[in-house]
Amino acid sequence: MTFSDSSLPPVSPADAARLAAKVAGSVLLPGEAGYDDERAVWNLNYELIPALIVVPERVADVQAAVTFAAQQHRPVLVKATGHQIVGQAQGAVVIATRRMNDVAIDAAGRTARVGAGAIWSDVVEKAAKAGLAPLNGSNPTVGDIGYTLGGGLSPTLGRSHGYAADHVCSLDVVTADGEFRHVDPESEPELFWALRGGKGNFGVVTALEFRLFPVPRLYGDGIYFPGERMADLLRAWTDWHPATPEIMVSSFAVLRLPSLPEVPEPLRGTFTVSLRIAYTGTSEDGERMVAPLRAVAPAVLDTVADMPYTAVASIHNEPTEPVSYYERGITLRAFPAQAQDKLVELVGPDSQTSLAIAELRALGGAWDREPAVPNAVATRGLPYVLLGVAVGPRLEEQQLKRSVAKMLDGMKPWHGDRRMVNGLAPEEAADAAAIYGPECYERLASIKKTYDPTNMFRLNHNVMPAA
């Protein structure tokens, strides 16, 4: 049997009270103090309206919440920061993990152990005290675990070390039967494979242990050029980056930024192109390597320099407060001259696009290599990720979607056959088979049948249990 989301009744106060008696954290019904705070998500254009929210403080609370959901035939959604949400969770139990945010660094073993609610800024800061760095994402406020379960594309260390999921040592998980499992390559190899890349389809990950790297500083940040020079800069960057060493990570972004105080003054209300740089070699080598890009056009703003690893969030300079937006990403299997011309046509100076951001990330290197212990990350061998972001309120949702779709659909001749789970939009939740490819999806579905046969964890980019 598979749970149904339709017509689920409210949770009764009596049932909520019985659950609350077993939970050290909070149990919240709609209308109660704290409910609105705990259901809030990062994107202000979306909202969660669950039947019940549990804010756990320990693993036993998570087990109680999952057992309660099973008894009531309700789906479960796990939320740390709410950066990626699918649906409204009507009738569901939401497990909001923000209080389980412990971060422990093992300097000698070069590992971190993080709780379900930990965010990247905390890990980066604590690891740096030991001269170490994680494979963190571009936004410091993103939750470690959701990012890693989706693969984890580090814009600083990924090209030399691969996906964040490749460096997971173990996970603590509460599965749909309410059981606590410590999962590593020896204890439960199939579940270990599926969790690393299969996103949140297999249970509630309450803790994660992963490897760190001895990277205390790097040469990096952003160089911003006039948007009118996009074509020249895109061709120069596309020719340049494949010949750089794997310790050089770069991306190309077309920016139409609003005139807001949090935007650096030279960029407010302007159309610019940004080259993002992260190089872990010497500053002298980095400066020499980047010189051909700097020579293409005069910079509006150039902040690329030696920096401590703790400053890496400035490379992408993403918002650290909730905003209203729509985003969607695809992979590209190639980016020849015709594709470059098409991207300039779609988002360049004559395009009339309303996108705030169009970003092209170059992959390759370790992102293409299978880790020592393989996992479910399905995007190896694809050379680029293309992301579109349109900013605006929910009233403009259809226009925001059309803006993103116009760019991504325009690049259709070069689309890859698989996609990054972390870059998907809510309406793509039914496309998991296409996201992973048939072979990977069939294996995930078989493992799903073992650990979540009723598809309790389906409020995501869902893998259905095998028939």
From TrEMBL:
For the FAD-binding PCMH-type domain, which residue ranges apply?
A: 46-215
Q: Which UniProt keywords apply?
A: FAD, Flavoprotein, Oxidoreductase
Cofactor(s), by name:
FAD
Stored Gene3D superfamilies: 3.30.465.10, 3.40.462.20, Uridine Diphospho-n-acetylenolpyruvylglucosamine Reductase, domain 2
Q: Which SUPFAM superfamilies match?
A: FAD-binding/transporter-associated domain-like
Q: Which family does it belong to?
A: Belongs to the oxygen-dependent FAD-linked oxidoreductase family.
Protein name per Swiss-Prot or TrEMBL: FAD-binding oxidoreductase
Please give the organism: Dongia soli
